[in-house]
Amino acid sequence: MLTHTDASGRALIPRLVPYQNNSITLDPAELPLSADISSIEHTVVPAWRSAVKVVFPVRSGRGALLKIMLDDGDVAPAGATVQIEGDDEEFYVARRGAAFVTGLQTHDIVLLNWNGQQCKIDVTLPPETPDEIARLGPLPCKGVTR
Questions:
Q1: Which residue ranges form the domains of the chain, and what is each CATH number?
Q2: Contact 76, 69 (CB under 8 A)
Q3: What is the pLDDT of residue 31?
Q4: In this structure, what DSSP letter does residue 75 have?
Q5: CA distance readout (Å), 34 to 4, 14, 38, 47, 86
Q6: How do 81-84 and 58-59 pair as beta strands?
Q7: CA separation (Å) from 125 to 93, 113, 119?
Q8: What is the mean pLDDT of the chain?
Q9: Cα separation of 40 and 42, whole Å?
């Protein structure tokens, strides 16, 4: 069955089968590029003549590829972790000091953690362009050494 959400992101799905598994799936092609969602499918088992609330947790914000440089001029090591200050979601630094971070707002503080050391990185996103991922860097990470 196909339905669409309203402006608030709500949808009513009629004719679910009571007391049986009903799979509810989002079409990833219909989601904005900036949507960060952990799962596009939920299974619900409604009772007869009842309603079931399903919440798909979506993190707001934008994604960006950050290139992080240490004090010595070398790139951040692969395996280091980064997270937005005040957010629990962790992201890993890959080769060449690159970390893809989602959930960014226009201005954020990103924390890099490696080998018991930490630095704060100011991240300011450029104006948003449709279907394009921002690439920022090199961003200085003061206080972390190899």
A1: 1-60 (2.60.40.2610), 62-141 (2.60.40.2070)
A2: yes
A3: 79
A4: B
A5: 19, 29, 13, 35, 19
A6: unpaired
A7: 19, 21, 19
A8: 90
A9: 7
Residue-wise pLDDT tens digits, 6-47: 888 889 999 999 999 999 999 888 877 667 788 899 999 999
What is the reported pTM? 0.70
Structure tokens at 123: 């991240």
The predicted-structure confidence for 67-123, as pLDDT tens digits, reads as follows 999 988 899 999 999 999 999 899 999 999 999 998 899 999 999 999 999 999 999
Q: Whose structure tokens read 């970390």?
A: 99
Query: With DSSP H G I counted as helix, E B as strand and the rest as coil, what are the percentages for the chain, rounded to 5?
Result: 5, 40, 55
Structure tokens at 108: 């954020």
